[in-house]
Amino acid sequence: RFRSLKLWFVLRSYGVEGIRKIIRKQLHLAEIFKEELARDKRFEILAPVYFSLVCFRLNDGRPEDELNELNRKLLQAVNSTGKVFMTHTTLKGKFTIRLVVGQRTTEERHVRQALEIIKAKADEILNK
Fold first, then answer.
1. If we measure between CA atoms, which residue out of 59, 56, 20 comes closest to residue 42?
2. What is the CA radius of gyration of the chain?
3. Residues 6+ apart with CB under 8 A from 109
4. Could you say which DSSP state residue 50 is in?
5. H or E, element range at 12
6. Do the beta carbons of residue 99 and residue 114 sit within 8 Å?
7. CB 58 within 8 A of CB 71
8. Half-sphere CA count of 114, side-chain side, radius 13 A
9. Which of 15, 21, 73, 117 is the one with CA 20 to 30 A from 64?
10. How far apart are CA 40 and CA 123, in angstroms?
11. Where are the beta strands (DSSP E) in the chain?
């Protein structure tokens, strides 16, 4: 009955231009994340970034089953910090880590902090 009420409150609070601004900012932050991660040769982007979802994995050239386990460990290590929370999926048989910029208060510093944590945990896992 009241499904549209939530949308009405959001439109009333931010206005159409405000919502556009938030979405553009999220798209920009996802692009920053993708570009910075792609510069690190240890990572690969596994899907085009059309919105604010970035699908990636750590890839150091191991066999596929070992890469899947490596990325499970990376996801668990990053999430266990409590500072970043990511999810996973499987794309074409590859364990894929997903980061979404979806909170309206997310800023570039948050994205850069996430990158630092991901790279630090990747260093730890690869150097074991």
1. 59
2. 17
3. none
4. S
5. helix 3-39
6. yes
7. yes
8. 24
9. 117
10. 12
11. 43-45, 53-58, 87-91, 94-100
Residues with Cβ < 8 Å from 37, sequence gap 6 or more?
Answer: 43, 45, 54, 56, 115, 118
Q: What is the pTM of this model?
A: 0.91
The H or E element spanning position 5 is helix 3-39
Place of tokens 């997310």: 106
How many CB atoms lie under 10 A from the CB of residue 84? 18
Full strand arrangement of the beta sheet holding 43-45 = 43-45, 53-58, 94-100, 87-91
Tokens of 97: 């880590």
- How far apart are the C-alpha atoms of 79 and 113, rounded to whole Å? 13
By the 8 A CB rule, do 99 and 56 touch? yes
- Chain CA centroid to CA 14, Å: 25
**Amino acid letter at 19?**
I
- List, for residues 37-86, the tens digit of each pLDDT value: 999 999 999 999 999 999 999 999 999 999 999 999 999 999 999 999 99
